[in-house]
Design brief:
There is one protein chain. With 204 residues, the protein is an alpha+beta fold. The strands form 4 sheets. The chain has a 7-stranded antiparallel sheet with strand order 1-2-11-8-13-6-5. A 4-stranded antiparallel sheet has the order 7-12-9-10. A two-stranded antiparallel sheet has the order 3-4. The radius of gyration is 17 Å and the shape is globular. 32% of the residues are buried. The longest helix is centred in the first third of the chain and has 14 residues.
């Protein structure tokens, strides 16, 4: 896809084929900016826990969550989110209109292998993740045999981009770790569908 052309010589291409393209750009923002965004989001987002059904019982989702629509921006959206959105849009040329946030409090927090809900995102547009705080490992794995996996450590200030096609052919996740790690916040920028309701524009 055109929006996933090489950024610069620092980019790492993790997946590139018929099943999609995944690229990683360390140093997308400088360390000072990444720390400032992390501090602002940690205190400025109304973080929430969730529960979900797993194996016939309800369990806690192992991380804290947040999210904002950006078209127009939610009035409660911290400035750091808008600044990060502007930089990602400028880099990729994609009209991202929503951001989902994950806060990993320590190595016990994680996200299981999954692909995005395709009914919620617009076909053809990539998903872009900005990482802040502690470094955590992302695992990208083919859905079909031989189920090859690619692992990458997502550093603070990095940008990780998956094109739409990868959601059909790969899963991605952040596994638990026994290593002593600090908190991490990820910002997942997406292009979501608008819906019409009561004569106005309301978004999922």
């Amino acid at each position: 896809m055109g929006q996933l052309e090489l950024f610069d010589s620092e980019e790492i291409v993790l997946v590139d084929g018929a099943g999609g393209r995944v690229v990683y750009a360390p140093g997308f923002v400088d360390a000072t900016t990444a720390q400032r965004w992390f501090d602002e989001l940690r205190r400025g987002v109304e973080w929430r826990g969730q529960r979900r059904m797993m194996y016939d019982r309800e369990v806690d989702v192992p991380r804290l969550l947040g999210g904002f629509r950006l078209d127009p921006p939610d009035v409660s959206a911290p400035r750091a989110i808008l600044d990060a959105r502007d930089r990602v849009v400028a880099r990729l040329g994609v009209p991202f209109n929503a951001v989902g946030l994950n806060r990993y409090r320590d190595g016990r927090d994680s996200v299981a292998p999954h692909n995005d809900h395709l009914n919620e995102i617009r076909e053809g547009f990539p998903i872009a993740l900005v990482s802040l705080g502690a470094t955590r490992r992302m695992v990208v794995r083919e859905k079909q045999p031989p189920r090859r996996a690619v692992q990458i450590d997502l550093e603070a200030g990095s940008l990780f981009v998956m094109d739409y096609q990868t959601q059909l052919h790969y899963t991605h996740g952040v596994p638990k770790t026994t290593a002593a790690v600090g908190e991490r916040i990820s910002l997942a920028f997406r292009v979501k569908h608008p819906t019409r309701e009561s004569g106005g524009t309301v978004y999922k």
